[in-house]
Design a protein that fits this description.
Chain A is mostly helical. Helices cover about 75% and strands about 5% of the residues of chain A. In chain B, helix 2 packs antiparallel against helix 5, helix 4 packs antiparallel against helix 5 and helix 6 packs antiparallel against helix 7. The longest helix of chain B is centred in the C-terminal third of the chain and has 31 residues. Classes of the chains: A mainly alpha, B mainly alpha.
Chain lengths: ~210, ~270
């Protein structure tokens, strides 16, 4: 779900960078309110690296395989650090594996990063409504994981299809968006179920990770 | 998982001698100038500039080809589809499918722009150690939280990659076969991911304690990022940066002033 270099017009790329700058500034401001910022930086950094590595795991879905995005899960675990973690992860991917690109880094950060903040706010409701209710945790985990991916997929498909060529027919654009969204909705369900399984694993093994 | 980005970072080419801070300014401006190009007439200039930069960098072509492998699948799909779905000037009929001129030119524009930007990015980050790029970002005044997170994540990326490889090997040795899509397999992958997260979290606590012992966060250890002027190497870097920025501005000016490309006029 990375838009490569050369696909978007410069105005979209620059807007992406401007929006990323704004969201980064907002996240940094929220992080500065954190009393334990110095201790949380190593935690967020190592979890960023762990998520980067985990996103390389192949989930086989014959005849192909998929990689999970984890933006919803990152939001749930890292809070406002998630946007920075995704920005750093995308930068690594662009530089090391040429997934995405330097000119589209801002746009990709908005596509994948902003739903993680929404997922964080959604998952926060768990503490408010009662963290010891397993059904509630399952629902919130699923919606955070699947919803964040669907939101990213919608932004990705709309941006790519509407910007790729000025001569594309409106009906063809609509069809392309619908086809790609139907494909991503299957992945969203898988990502949602995976998030539920992972959150339940963490709840049993390391519950403090969900609270930190 | 081997991060082979630094493999050619210690060569001695004109681009390796270009200081990374200056190089970031120069080559990023070129990348954005390339992203501006919509006019087909400017594509050869873009390719020539990219070719000169790549040959000056002394990075082997095989390294570039290896890097092109993954994103090229996506590009190939789009380039293959565009002539059929974009445009309204038919140039060829293939059964019920029509190939349009506008789609063909758009596919050419996207693929050349993609190839040039990717190559320049590779030259930018492949001709200096990755840590120099992060240090250069720090000297540009990037927020401390982002720079620290980038440095720490980069430091442990390869180790965590090795950890994942070891764990996957252990799973296979215990008889796990990731064939087919089953609920059980998904559960195992979730536990694998969870274990990596737990291990990195526990490790981060130890790292933080070690960092505190070494004075992390203490006011006395914070050095001011002063830009130290090194007369000889900085003059070379400065001139080459000015040249790159001038080329970028010229490309954008040409893009704005040249008459737009008219389909079928060629």
């Amino acid at each position: 779900m990375h838009i490569p270099d050369g696909f978007l017009s410069p105005s979209v790329c620059i807007t992406g960078y401007a929006l990323t700058g704004g969201v980064t500034w907002y996240c940094l401001r929220q992080i500065e309110r954190d009393r334990n910022i110095q201790a949380n930086i190593p935690k967020a950094s190592l979890l960023t690296a762990a998520f980067f590595v985990a996103s390389l795991i192949n989930i086989p879905i014959p005849p192909t395989s998929i990689h999970l995005i984890f933006n919803g899960l990152m939001g749930a675990l890292l809070g406002y650090y998630a946007f920075l973690a995704i920005l750093i992860g995308l930068f690594f991917q662009a530089v090391m594996f040429q997934h995405g690109g330097m000119s589209t880094l801002g746009v990709n950060a908005i596509i994948i990063g902003s739903p993680s903040i929404a997922a964080y706010h959604l998952f926060q409701q768990r503490g408010r409504l009662g963290s010891n209710k397993p059904v509630l945790t399952t629902i919130l985990s699923f919606v955070s994981g699947a919803g964040a991916l669907l939101l990213s997929a919608a932004m990705f498909a709309i941006l790519l299809v509407t910007n790729i060529s000025p001569d594309m027919d409106v009906n063809a654009e609509r069809t392309a968006i619908l086809i790609s969204l139907s494909g991503y909705s299957i992945q969203a369900v898988i990502e949602g179920v995976f998030t539920v399984m992972l959150i339940s694993f963490l709840e049993k093994v390391k519950p403090e990770l969900l609270k930190s | 998982m081997k991060l082979i980005l630094d493999r050619y970072a210690y060569l001695d080419s004109p681009l390796h001698r270009w200081q990374q801070g200056y190089k970031l300014i120069g080559l990023l401006s070129l990348i954005f100038a390339f992203a501006f190009i919509q006019n087909i007439w400017l594509l050869p200039i873009m390719v020539i500039i990219t070719g000169i930069l790549f040959s000056l960098s002394e990075i082997p072509i095989s390294f570039l080809i290896k890097r092109l492998r993954y994103p090229s699948w996506f590009i190939l799909t789009v380039v293959f589809l565009l002539p059929f779905i974009s445009g309204n000037t038919p140039i060829f009929q293939l059964g019920f499918l029509t190939i349009h001129a506008e789609g063909c030119w758009q596919a050419l524009l996207i693929s050349v722009r993609f190839f040039c930007i990717l190559t320049v990015s590779l030259v930018l980050f492949g001709t200096a150690p990755f840590l120099s790029s992060i240090k250069a970002m720090r000297s540009f005044g990037f927020p401390r939280v982002i720079v620290d997170m980038t440095l720490l994540s980069y430091r442990y990326l390869e180790e965590l990659g090795e950890m994942l490889t070891t764990m996957q090997r252990a799973m296979r040795l215990r008889g796990f076969k990731a064939k087919g899509f089953k609920r059980r397999n998904l559960e195992v992958f979730a536990q694998l991911t969870g274990s990596i997260l737990v291990r990195s979290y526990e490790r981060s606590l130890r790292i933080y304690q070690a960092m505190i012992l070494r004075g992390y966060g203490s006011q006395r250890t914070r050095k001011k990022n002063s830009w130290q002027w090194n007369k000889h190497s900085d003059r070379y870097s400065l001139w080459i940066t000015i040249m790159a920025v001038v080329i970028s501005i010229s490309l954008v000016t040409l893009e704005a002033t040249l008459p737009s490309f008219i389909w079928l006029s060629i």
